[in-house]
């Protein structure tokens, strides 16, 4: 069976009509456009290696993308900044390591990956006026020439215990699931109430760890783990769910309120002010209360 432009149009229609469990369109129009372009590029590569006739590739180029307002697919919904009142309530229901990640996330305005994959070797502690500089590696940055992040005193106070622990292993990640599991096991052992006559743990119960477990803690927290931790904490706190990407917008709104557009641009690491002004325009509606203790 030959794949033609009509096949691509049929697939595009199915994606636009696809419904999720909440009866809302699962795929937005920009996402469908992205998937269609991926399929085109696959056939283009096939032509390059003489695996696909060139006529099929040119036929797929004639296909038209979905137009705004003339399709069942919804438009991309831009998320707003997370309200600090909700964030503060959520932090009370989080594990300490996740709480530290969220607070650093807001203070420096980084992306989720830049927070989750922090390492000791990526910091410059010799900056002037007591400001540290965090310059993540190329595979962590979204763009190659992203501006390094300035780490102020409040973020330094949160990061210092994690940095001191990783001084001997500078390549290790600051926020590690392995460390979290190890500390949790130590806490459980310290809080143990049943001991033998000598005040020790029974020999059969000293270590029940499996020799070759199927699942082991990772070196750093994944995007999904970070998101699920925030989601579960929001449910426990009884507030509306917010995501890690909204924390970056919250930080942008705070920076612009305190120091203007230039300050927000420097914190976000944008090359052009238009990106900061347009993408984070919705973030300026965040209510800033003096009782919130983030900044």
Task: Explain what this protein looks like in three dimensions.
- By secondary structure, the protein is mainly α.
- The chain folds into two domains: 5-61, no CATH class; 84-285, Intergrase catalytic core (hpI Integrase, Chain A).
- It is 48% helix and 3% strand.
- Helix 2 (29-48) packs antiparallel against helix 3 (54-61), helix 5 (96-108) packs across helix 7 and helix 5 runs parallel beside helix 10 (244-268).
- Mean pLDDT is 79; it is low at 282-295.
Which segments are poorly predicted (pLDDT under 50) over 5 or more consecutive residues? 282-295
Biggest sheet: strands, sense, closure?
A: 3 strands, antiparallel
The span between the termini is 62 Å
Helix fraction bin: 40-55%
Radius of gyration: 25 Å
Query: Can you identify the CATH class of the largest domain?
Result: Mainly Alpha
Looking at CATH, the homologous superfamily of the largest domain is: Intergrase catalytic core
Report the structural category.
mainly alpha
Total number of beta strands? 3
